Amino acid sequence: MRTLTVLGATGSVGASTLDLIRRNRDEWRVLALTAHSNTAELARLAREFGAELAVVANEAQLPALREALAGSGVEAAGGPAALVEAAARGADVTLAAIVGCAGLAPTMAAIEQGGVIALANKEALVSAGDVMTAAVERHGATLLPVDSEHNAIFQCLAGNDSAHVRWITLTASGGPFRDWSWERLCAATPAEAVRHPNWDMGAKISVDSATMFNKGLELIEAHHLFPVGLDRLRIIVHPQSVVHSMVEYRDGSTLAQLGPSDMRVPIASALAWPERMDTPCTPLDLAEIGELTFRRPDEERFPATRLAREAAMAGGAIPAVLNAANEIAVAAFLAGQISFTRIAAQVEDVLGSYAPPPPGCLSDVLEVDTEARARARVLMTSA
Ligand code: NAD
Ligand code: MG
């Protein structure tokens, strides 16, 4: 029996994770589940899985959570510090599935316990970068990528020396707007942006997928996860989302991981690692799919990958600035305050106005994140 904590249990990745646990109840014991404010769903999950602890990040919701858990024996807690405490209970496996830099502090707390961290929360790694990878090293934790591309690369690297890698190629679906003209992009609505053709995901990552910031964040994520230089990381657009990423070796061999567009596959790979487990996912039927196509990304219409590459090259705190500016811009777009194409423009403006020194610890990263958000808001109101 292994213990599991799910940070962000009520989200899309959280639900996929708990669906797998539901099918393997005798192998897992759930320690803690967390959510932002959906107390009804959190309480339902905590009862179903017999969790020890349920944490709602929005402290105002704690009375509602307590009420929903009355008589269940599940402990209830609220607020950001309680999130960190949940992560610090030291589960064997922590599924980090909070969206945004809000997941950073609890993810770091889980790392400090030295267990397995199955990481979906890419914004945390993008923001903290070396601070996080150094903590992983220091505490003997194991960081397993859940992001489908990185999980694919992790699988393609297994048993090979990364010194022999010529290219790591991240595939990108291109999102719902991949064939849209610039004029059409300027008028794209939030409802159109969250309607992803291949994946069913939370709103923020769906918008990131439409702007290609998702791939930009993933480029930075890959740079921290895998020991190859940025000059050996590239992106290719692959609309069918069947090839989840590839690794090309110096002898000309390319290894790819293929699978259905279902997050339960990479989540299962991380949960069972180094073993394998069954999933209920529809098996890949390549004859039915018929065609796999690939093309180069267009950085004119989608500047996000260029901005992310530049931020990764600058290193230090700059990726945290990029991430924070993007989080604010995406929230503003979803709230109808800025246009779709303003997202990247606004991120570029913030990057041009704020270049803090490299962070040395978690609180430095959080400070950069807070300041970059404040600047993004100011730039937005003055634009
Ligand atoms: P989601 O919006 O569906 O769920 C996010 C979860 O985080 C929810 O449980 C929510 O309650 C919680 N949360 C949100 N804000 C919070 C805050 N401020 N404090 C504490 N908890 C908070 O998001 P998702 O699509 O499941 O994505 C989660 C993470 O996984 C993101 O970083 C995303 O980039 C990554 N990811 C998602 C997918 C996918 O298919 N959905 C694929 C790859 C990577
Ligand atoms: Mg991904």
TrEMBL record:
<feature type="binding site">
    <location>
        <position position="13"/>
    </location>
    <ligand>
        <name>NADPH</name>
    </ligand>
</feature>
<dbReference type="InterPro" id="IPR036291">
    <property type="entry name" value="NAD(P)-bd_dom_sf"/>
</dbReference>
<keyword id="KW-0464">Manganese</keyword>
<feature type="binding site">
    <location>
        <position position="173"/>
    </location>
    <ligand>
        <name>1-deoxy-D-xylulose 5-phosphate</name>
    </ligand>
</feature>
<feature type="binding site">
    <location>
        <position position="202"/>
    </location>
    <ligand>
        <name>NADPH</name>
    </ligand>
</feature>
<feature type="binding site">
    <location>
        <position position="196"/>
    </location>
    <ligand>
        <name>1-deoxy-D-xylulose 5-phosphate</name>
    </ligand>
</feature>
<comment type="pathway">
    <text>Isoprenoid biosynthesis; isopentenyl diphosphate biosynthesis via DXP pathway; isopentenyl diphosphate from 1-deoxy-D-xylulose 5-phosphate: step 1/6.</text>
</comment>
<feature type="binding site">
    <location>
        <position position="12"/>
    </location>
    <ligand>
        <name>NADPH</name>
    </ligand>
</feature>
<comment type="similarity">
    <text>Belongs to the DXR family.</text>
</comment>
<feature type="binding site">
    <location>
        <position position="218"/>
    </location>
    <ligand>
        <name>1-deoxy-D-xylulose 5-phosphate</name>
    </ligand>
</feature>
<keyword id="KW-0560">Oxidoreductase</keyword>
<keyword id="KW-0479">Metal-binding</keyword>
<feature type="binding site">
    <location>
        <position position="218"/>
    </location>
    <ligand>
        <name>Mn(2+)</name>
    </ligand>
</feature>
<comment type="function">
    <text>Catalyzes the NADPH-dependent rearrangement and reduction of 1-deoxy-D-xylulose-5-phosphate (DXP) to 2-C-methyl-D-erythritol 4-phosphate (MEP).</text>
</comment>
<feature type="binding site">
    <location>
        <position position="215"/>
    </location>
    <ligand>
        <name>1-deoxy-D-xylulose 5-phosphate</name>
    </ligand>
</feature>
<feature type="domain" description="1-deoxy-D-xylulose 5-phosphate reductoisomerase N-terminal">
    <location>
        <begin position="4"/>
        <end position="129"/>
    </location>
</feature>
<dbReference type="Pfam" id="PF02670">
    <property type="entry name" value="DXP_reductoisom"/>
</dbReference>
<dbReference type="InterPro" id="IPR036169">
    <property type="entry name" value="DXPR_C_sf"/>
</dbReference>
<feature type="binding site">
    <location>
        <position position="10"/>
    </location>
    <ligand>
        <name>NADPH</name>
    </ligand>
</feature>
<feature type="binding site">
    <location>
        <position position="38"/>
    </location>
    <ligand>
        <name>NADPH</name>
    </ligand>
</feature>
<feature type="binding site">
    <location>
        <position position="123"/>
    </location>
    <ligand>
        <name>NADPH</name>
    </ligand>
</feature>
<feature type="domain" description="1-deoxy-D-xylulose 5-phosphate reductoisomerase C-terminal">
    <location>
        <begin position="143"/>
        <end position="226"/>
    </location>
</feature>
<dbReference type="InterPro" id="IPR013644">
    <property type="entry name" value="DXP_reductoisomerase_C"/>
</dbReference>
<feature type="binding site">
    <location>
        <position position="214"/>
    </location>
    <ligand>
        <name>1-deoxy-D-xylulose 5-phosphate</name>
    </ligand>
</feature>
<protein>
    <recommendedName>
        <fullName>1-deoxy-D-xylulose 5-phosphate reductoisomerase</fullName>
        <ecNumber>1.1.1.267</ecNumber>
    </recommendedName>
</protein>
<dbReference type="Pfam" id="PF08436">
    <property type="entry name" value="DXP_redisom_C"/>
</dbReference>
<dbReference type="InterPro" id="IPR013512">
    <property type="entry name" value="DXP_reductoisomerase_N"/>
</dbReference>
<feature type="binding site">
    <location>
        <position position="149"/>
    </location>
    <ligand>
        <name>Mn(2+)</name>
    </ligand>
</feature>
<feature type="binding site">
    <location>
        <position position="149"/>
    </location>
    <ligand>
        <name>1-deoxy-D-xylulose 5-phosphate</name>
    </ligand>
</feature>
<feature type="binding site">
    <location>
        <position position="147"/>
    </location>
    <ligand>
        <name>Mn(2+)</name>
    </ligand>
</feature>
<dbReference type="GO" id="GO:0030604">
    <property type="term" value="F:1-deoxy-D-xylulose-5-phosphate reductoisomerase activity"/>
</dbReference>
<keyword id="KW-0460">Magnesium</keyword>
<feature type="binding site">
    <location>
        <position position="122"/>
    </location>
    <ligand>
        <name>1-deoxy-D-xylulose 5-phosphate</name>
    </ligand>
</feature>
<feature type="binding site">
    <location>
        <position position="209"/>
    </location>
    <ligand>
        <name>1-deoxy-D-xylulose 5-phosphate</name>
    </ligand>
</feature>
<feature type="binding site">
    <location>
        <position position="121"/>
    </location>
    <ligand>
        <name>NADPH</name>
    </ligand>
</feature>
<keyword id="KW-0521">NADP</keyword>
<keyword id="KW-0414">Isoprene biosynthesis</keyword>
<feature type="binding site">
    <location>
        <position position="11"/>
    </location>
    <ligand>
        <name>NADPH</name>
    </ligand>
</feature>
<feature type="binding site">
    <location>
        <position position="148"/>
    </location>
    <ligand>
        <name>1-deoxy-D-xylulose 5-phosphate</name>
    </ligand>
</feature>
<feature type="domain" description="DXP reductoisomerase C-terminal">
    <location>
        <begin position="258"/>
        <end position="374"/>
    </location>
</feature>
<dbReference type="InterPro" id="IPR003821">
    <property type="entry name" value="DXP_reductoisomerase"/>
</dbReference>
<dbReference type="Pfam" id="PF13288">
    <property type="entry name" value="DXPR_C"/>
</dbReference>
